[in-house]
Amino acid sequence: MNKSELIDAIAADAGITKAAAKLALESFLGNVSGTLKKGGRISLVGFGSWSVSKRAAREGRNPQTGKTIKIAAKNVVKFKAGAELDGAVN
């Protein structure tokens, strides 16, 4: 499912226009991104939680040449599925 298909599904399920569903989805995504950018955590009980983790700098290898390269430290987003979502998938 892509973004436009998700907007269509939200609009149909909620009985709202596609424009309203698009605004709601964009608001959700913006708030999740903003919270994670500030280092916060989002938790939706039953669905899952997003958090930011720091990945330390490390050395890696260029697979083509075999040379050692330095990989910079960075922040990564982690998602942990909740029990209900995990149960629905399995």
From TrEMBL:
Keywords: DNA condensation, DNA-binding. GO terms for molecular function: DNA binding. InterPro entries: Hist_DNA-bd, IHF-like_DNA-bd_dom_sf. CDD domains: HU (cd13831). Belongs to the bacterial histone-like protein family. This is HU family DNA-binding protein. The lineage of its organism: Bacteria, Pseudomonadati, Bacteroidota, Flavobacteriia, Flavobacteriales.
